[in-house]
Amino acid sequence: MSNAAPLLDVQDVSKIYGGSGGLFGFGLGSQVRALDGVALTVGEREIVGLVGESGSGKSTLGRLVVGLERPTSGHIILNEAARPGPPRGKARSLGPQIIFQNAVAALNPRRTVKDAILEPAVVHGLLTGPADAFVHRLMDSVGLPASLKDRRPHELSGGQCQRVVIARALAASPKLLVCDEPVSALDVSIQAQVLNLFLDLYDETGCSYLFISHDLPVVERLSHRIAIMYLGRIVESAPTKALFAKPLHPYTEALIASVPDIEQQRRTFHPVSGEIPSPLSPPSGCHFHPRCPHAMDVCRVVQPPLLAIEPGHFSACHLNTPPAFAAAGASGPLG
Ligand SMILES: Nc1ncnc2c1ncn2[C@@H]1O[C@H](COP(=O)(O)OP(=O)(O)OP(=O)(O)O)[C@@H](O)[C@H]1O
């Protein structure tokens, strides 16, 4: 990556749902802090994987990045190239696009493949030539035969529907694609094909991805860099190789250990113990401390900051924080 401004710069972003005054304005509504001070960047031509258990805030961040929702606080900055707006050569961009897990639900059941792919281009005046050629080119780029162009979603397989959704996103010439669990609804064999498609499209288009998944091996395969989320916070981020070679946060360690590696017998299967706590009442201090085998007293009271422990490798854990910071809280193992 160059030193140029990142394509996407998420700065100290929080998102709180509910609790806006509660019943009759008496503050009775309960609040969910879906995101809590999240900072993340995605560079040009970079694939960043975002991993975490269900409820950690991954989809919320994805929706904020593409502007479907607004943060409660903090800033989401899109570099000029990623922003919607003025023409870039012949193709105009609609800004970041998002691909959801459920492709069938994302498509209008009454519209054909051709109409689905054309719609954003027509509505936003992006069509630069004959419609058929435009549709065929996009269908070809996602590996769909042109003969399917008049089919409706119920006449396609799940994998084909996901390809239509990807083609429709590409029609907007995005520089940044947010992929929210784009393969988890597909059969394993189809998953591999669609993941290969994402890699091919990366080579062809130079598009950056924020690739959201709860599946660490999927993200490992695609990403240059991985960020690990836990209950609304990023707890570790690093280049993919560094993260697997030397995970610094106990949650990351537990996630990696939970991945069975049948072929190489390298990793044994130990699911992360305990349930992810309710985001309605997250644990104090480090949110992970009730499940952490290394928890100390300080972890219960002080939130560890996300610090660069090695160049490009960030971790939010008192095991990694400098002694001066840790001394601010008590030390010693939790009972
Ligand atoms: N519109 C909403 N209103 C209220 N709470 C919400 C809303 N959207 C998300 N949440 C809550 O925010 C938290 C984070 O949800 P989010 O869907 O972002 O997590 P996730 O990591 O993507 O989970 P999953 O992998 O299950 O999709 C959850 O507790 C969820 O219930």
UniProtKB/TrEMBL annotation:
BP GO annotations: peptide transport; transmembrane transport
Domain ABC transporter stretches: 8-256
Localization, UniProt: Cell inner membrane
One term of GO molecular function: ATP binding
Topology versus the membrane: Peripheral membrane protein
PROSITE patterns the UniProt entry points to: ABC_TRANSPORTER_1 (PS00211), ABC_TRANSPORTER_2 (PS50893)
UniProt-listed PANTHER family: D,D-DIPEPTIDE TRANSPORT ATP-BINDING PROTEIN DDPF-RELATED, TRANSPORT ATP-BINDING PROTEIN
Name of the protein described by the UniProt record: ABC transporter ATP-binding protein
